[in-house]
Structure prediction request, 93 residues.
Amino acid sequence: MSKSYKIFSYMQLVVLTLFIAHIILVWFLVVVDPNSQNFNDILFLFIYILLWVSGILLLNHNKINKQIWIKNIVMTTVLTTVLIYDYWIINLI
Prediction:
């Protein structure tokens, strides 16, 4: 197994985990209990921290290749923006 394949698989795993976390966040905020504000804040904070930790792990994992490093920053920023946008929209409802 080549090194680039391992990095690609690791990145796919993190993106999949974050996508699932994002789906769970939206599901909890909309379906389970939209009136429980404290629970919503804790859940959002947990997933937000998970997102940044995984982004930092990716950055440390791929220090060698600058192009992959830049892609990881962009990916983490985009996913963070999506989570913040979802949270903001759901709080408006």
Q: What stands out?
A: The CA atoms of residues 26 and 86 lie 7 Å apart. Residues 3-92 form one domain. The two ends are 48 Å apart (CA to CA). The chain is about 90% helix and 0% strand.
